[in-house]
Amino acid sequence: MWLTFEDWLREFATVFICREVRFWHEVSMTGAWYGGPLLLAGGLVTGSTGGNNPQFKLTMHSTAHIFLTLSQGYA
Amino acid sequence: MVPGYHSGGSQSDFVPILAVLFPSQNGNKRDVGVDPQAPGFHFSGAPRPNRQVCWQDVVLLLHGSGGGSIAQPSDAMLRWQVSIEVPDLRPGVYTIMVCTYHAGIEAPFRLSVYSPRSRAQVEAQLGTSPAGNAANGGPARGELVSAVNPAHLRGRRGSNAAATTASAAEDLTAMGKRPFTLTQVYPEVSLTEDLPTEEWA
After folding, report:
1. How many CB atoms lie within 10 A of CB B188?
2. What is the pLDDT along chain B (201 residues), one digit of tens a residue?
3. pTM score > 0.90 for this model?
4. Is the CB of A25 less than 8 angstroms away from the CB of B115?
5. Chain A within 8 Å of B106 (Cβ-Cβ)?
6. How far is CA B193 from CA A28, A67, B102, in A?
7. Which value does ipTM take for this structure?
8. B132 contacts on A by Cβ (under 8 Å)
9. Which candidate from A13, A54, A73 shows the least CB-CB separation from B79?
10. Nearest chain A Cα distance for residue B66, angstroms
11. ω before B187 within 30° of 0 (cis)?
């Protein structure tokens, strides 16, 4: 069964595609951006305060396929 | 104006975000002065219809009739999610920096790093291999496991079932270790250990 892209556009407005990571290694950390004197929300990385954004070190012990996600609203 | 988005340091339920990944220029210490043109720099990209704008863990790849409009969540529960995928990230120390599009925003975030497990490890987790059964408290390595078809194993991985069992056991040992470690370096926090949420023992 198939549908042309043009027909799909006519019939649907949204498509959701999920990545199954059930069998993947996962490490998650939560944090927050905030203003104030420390200014942990430094804006874009190329800006003058970009280095103020939260930073993490990812140490690769061997060559591997890496997939990372950043989500807003979990802390 | 994006619904739920506020500038000026106020709390926001919804802010445009991005992530970057690059070879660390400062070892295990904080990096400043990032050069996005440097080799090995990965950028999650701005949220766009053909990028990964997410709604509750679901990736929205196309939004709006004709696919020409940028996704604009209209519900306060909606949130951004962006991602970076690197098929073969080499050994070394990398910096992951998480950013918003505007300085001063106040918002929580969650960073997750994934790496696929080996076939042997997945089989072990599912209990479909001799090594996995042993790891799960089932028959020890070398014992007959009736649920495993040696011919099936031969076809997939080895010249015989015993070799496959040993190989799986070795993989099991090796893949008990994640290929990566994640540590927060800025802001400095007292808890810098990995926080595995789904680590398989």
Report:
1. 8
2. 333 333 344 444 567 888 999 999 888 888 888 888 888 999 887 554 434 444 443 434 333 333 334 444 444 345 678 889 999 999 999 999 999 888 888 888 999 999 999 888 788 778 776 554 444 444 333 333 323 333 333 333 333 333 333 333 344 344 468 899 999 998 887 544 444 444 433
3. no
4. yes
5. yes
6. 11, 20, 29
7. 0.84
8. none
9. A73
10. 6
11. yes
